[in-house]
## 1
Amino acid sequence: MGPGFSPLDEALGLSGSRYSPRLQGWVVRLGADVPFARAAFWLHELCGITLSAATVRRQTEAVGASAVARAEAEVAQLERTALAPPVHPERLVLGADGAMVPLVGGEWAEVKLLSIGEPAAGSGASCASS
């Protein structure tokens, strides 16, 4: 039987590793959670797998670097394709009103209404700047 193939390993740049994807996942998860020497200890204690703290560090940092590179590439892509923020108008026109509405049980209550909009050109809706 030949070596296995993992698309995620290839996407993360981890192909060619001598460790199985499962073992590498354990190493990286432990290495990200506890000190590298402690991760090596727990791998040996729980699974009988002997790795040095330096190996745990290298594997963990390699996956971390791949994750950072992918995140930075996604941010760059979003920055290239993101829509420009909307241009805010120089002035807004506000209008407020109230109305009485019937509620369940025959009671009435007042509701407040607020409308916000841009003044139309030539509408005479100008305000003194403060």
Note: The chain has four helices and two strands.
## 2
Amino acid sequence: MKKTLTVLLALAMLSSAVMTSCSDATDNAETTAASSQTSSPDAASAEELEAEEPQDFYTMTGLPRDLNLNGYDIKFDVEEGNNGTLTARSVWVEEDSGDIVDAAVFERNMNVMEGLNCNITLLASDTYGSSANTKTRLRTQVQAGSDDVQLAGFYQYYGTVIATENLVYNMANFPYNDFTRDYWGVGYMDALSYKGAYFFATGPMALRYTGGVYVTYINSNLWNEFYADTNLYDVVRDGKWTYDYLYDVTNATYIDANGNGSADASDTYGFILSLQDMVDGMAVGADVKWSERDSEGNVSIIVNNERSISFYEKLYKLMYNSTGAHSATQDDSVTVMKMFNDGYGMATINKMFQAEIYLREMEDNYTILPLPKLDETQAEYNSAIHDGCTIFAIPITTGNPDAVSAVLEALAAESARLVSPAYYDQALKVKYTRDSDSGEMIDLIYSNISTDFAFMYSNNLTDIAHLFRNNISNKNEALASAMAKSEKAWGKMIERFLEKLDDVIESQG
């Protein structure tokens, strides 16, 4: 199913000056006026604009201005992903340090705490793979019937496993949450939902939602060295940025930089890639579908199809039948991003937030493009969000879930109003772009986010989202036969999983 990033983010990107300005430097949204309008501000009269109520989380959410939570404590427990503290920073900063994002998070929290008369605290933050993590503590809390944590933030891939354990509330049952509002990641959350039940929520309040979008990075210096006569932006605009095009330029781009006569990590390549989570995102970019829903919301696995096979064949050809492709086995992005930073790769694919970490001091200029299309018949460029996206949930032992619902809604609205513009300004104006056309490409990337149910719940479904990465890493050419062998098991697996979800939904009413 086609999923689109929130209107707030898209409007911000269209209206932001970064779309037409250059940045000389090497982590995203809505202007205050545009966030409450469905038509252009230019179409409104001066009297109408003057009379418009000042924008705040009350006007955005519809929360009653007299809502008083009487000092209620909202304590977060979150799982952090690799490379930075984006999840923790999404929730809490101790003070306004002067950093543009931290300042916005601090202001957002102060506004919500003062407006609703509540307290917000980051109780714990652990890396998702650690033995002491949010899921473990949540299970202990529910088993004990305690109310230690009111909001949990999970690493999406690992967090969705609790959906069938009846550990978190179906937030669709609460009075203050409206997941059709633009300040939520509406399309992403629709994919996470099941028959109208929302156990998890995310959107601009999670920096790993905004920063976790996959992009193509191009070393502009190397591109101009090999293809000076080709405007790469025009290739994208003409809909020709495809896997066949990437293969052609990759295959013709290789330099034996160390002169030892063999291809190794010290040479210069047309395309470098870690054959791990990036492959998942590339499949989404090629409009591959793992699952579909019928009119009643039932989900079935459909990944065994011609498009999946076509994508995999093109990927295999690119990585193993091209003289200019190099693969790294590490999943932490370090090897590939350092190689790209040092000028050993003309192109690579990774998350947007990696630019802040690895490319800030890059000497060569670089360009940001969308993920390649499968072929020129694909209608649009698709984008994907890394499965480390932070998803929030309310533990089922929370004593006052309605109050938590109100705080979560207010935080989401204030994040779109305050935090997202700051993150975009920092990411787009300072760290991520180096020329005036990059803004147009970033706008294109964020305009069309795709995902589906089986991809989101892959950890419950024998890692079905890792189908392509596992096979390409093992250099397996026979994907079609592998899928054919698994298809019956996939059907039984999704059936059992959905039965468990149905039971949880029924138990909560």
Note: Confidence is low (pLDDT under 50) at residues 1-46.
